[in-house]
Amino acid sequence: MDLAAAILLILLNLASRYTCSDSRLLVKMTLVHNASKIGGFCLDGSLPAYHLHRGFGAGARNWLLQFEGRNLLFKAIDGLAENWKVERVKGGGWCNDIQSCLKRAQTRRGSTLYMNKLEDFNGILSNKASLNPDFYNWNRVKLRYCDGGSFSGDAKRDITLNHTMRNFFENLVSLQGIEENLNKNCTSFLDNPKLCMFPQYFLRYITAPFFILNTAYDVYQFHHALVPPSADTRGHWNRCKLSIDSCNTRQLDILQDFRQDMLVALRSFHIYSRRGGMFINSCFAHCQSESQDTWFARDSPQIYSKTIAEAVGDWYFSRNTSKLIDCAYPCDTSCHNIAAANVAGFLHGKDEDGKTEIFTSFVA
C-alpha cells in the first residue's frame, strides 16, 4: 500500500505543469530552488516561484514574462534566436517599514507558502488564439511577487497638497535598499535619486522599446494617491469613490486635472518616441491585460475601435502605429468601470477571492 502511494506521488510530480478545467487553463507553481544562491527570497524566507505554460508552433521560441505585483510596462527585446516581451501587471502593493513587512510576510504577498498553487491563465496569458490572438502560442511565464518592493506609484500631490505617496516610496527605497538598483542615469541626474522610483522621471532613460497601458483614471491612484484616507478624514469623497455618478462638479474637475497631469507627463513620450506604444483609456479601472473581458472580448474597452490586445499586437509586430489616448470621461461607453460593490471591496483591500490584496498602478 505504501509503495502504491509512493508511485502515485511520483506520477503526480511528473504530470504536466498545467491542467485544463472547464475550459480554464490552470498552471502549476514551480519553486526556484537555486534562488538561495543569489539571495533570492520572499519576505518570510520562502523560495520564489513562477508558473510556466510552454509555447508551441511558431511561438515556441518566443517568451512573455509577466511580473506579478507591478504594472503595465511592456518591453520588446530582440535577440538572435528568441523574442522577449516583458509585462508588469496586476498590483501587489508594498511594505515600507518593518511592521508592515512582517505582517505582509504572513500573506500570499510575502510568502509562496500562502499562494495559490494553480494560476488561471487568461487575457494576455491565454493559450487560445480567439482570446489572445498575437501571443497565445508563446512561452508564457507568470513570476510571483513576494518581496514587497516593486516600483510604481505617483509622485504628485494629493488633494491636501501633501506628497503622501512620494513619502511612502521614499521610505520603501530606504528600507529595502532599492536605490542601488534604480536607473543610474536617472539617479545621477536628480538631486533626489529616490524619485527614480517614479516612471515620469525614469521613462526618458529606457532605451528598449516599450508599451504603456493604463487608464487615465486608475482606481488605485484615485483612492490612495489622489484621495488617500489621510487626506479625506471626514469622508467627503466616500460617495464619489463608491460611484462616479455621485461625484460633485468640484470632484470631477479634480479627477479631470488628475488625468491631465498624467497626459502632460506622457507628452514627450507620445510625441518623440519612435518605437514606443501606448493605450491610455478613460475608464475607472485597474489592471486590464490579465482579465479576458478587458484584454480581448466582444465588449472589451476600445479606443478608435481598437481593443487593448489589438493595440499591443499592432505595436509589437509593427503592423501599425499604436499610440492611443482616449477622450476624457464620460465619453467612452466601452469602459468596464469598477462597480460600486467591487470598489467597496477594493477599498478594504479585498480581492475577488476574499484574500487581502493592495493594488498597484503604473503612473507616468
Q: How would you portray this structure in words?
A:
Mean pLDDT is 80; it is low at 1-21, 71-81, 151-155 and 339-364. The protein is an alpha/beta fold and 364 residues long. The strands form two sheets. Strands 1, 2, 3, 4, 5, 6, 7, 8, 9, 10 and 13 form an eleven-stranded mixed beta sheet that branches. Strands 11-12 form a two-stranded antiparallel sheet. The chain is built from eleven helices and 13 strands. Strand 11 and strand 12 (306-307) form a beta hairpin. Helix content is 27%, strand content 18%.
> Could you give the distance between the termini?
61 Å
Helix content: 25-40%
Structural class: alpha/beta
DSSP, total strands: 13
> Percent of residues in beta strands?
15-25%
Query: Main beta sheet: strand number and arrangement?
Result: 11 strands, mixed
Which residue ranges are poorly predicted, with pLDDT under 50 across at least 5 consecutive positions?
Answer: 1-21, 71-81, 151-155, 339-364
Instruction: Summarize the helix and strand pattern as letters.
Output: HEEEEEEHEEHHHEHHHEHEEHEH
Shape: globular
Put simply, the count of helices is 11
Mean pLDDT: 80
Rg, Å, rounded: 21 Å
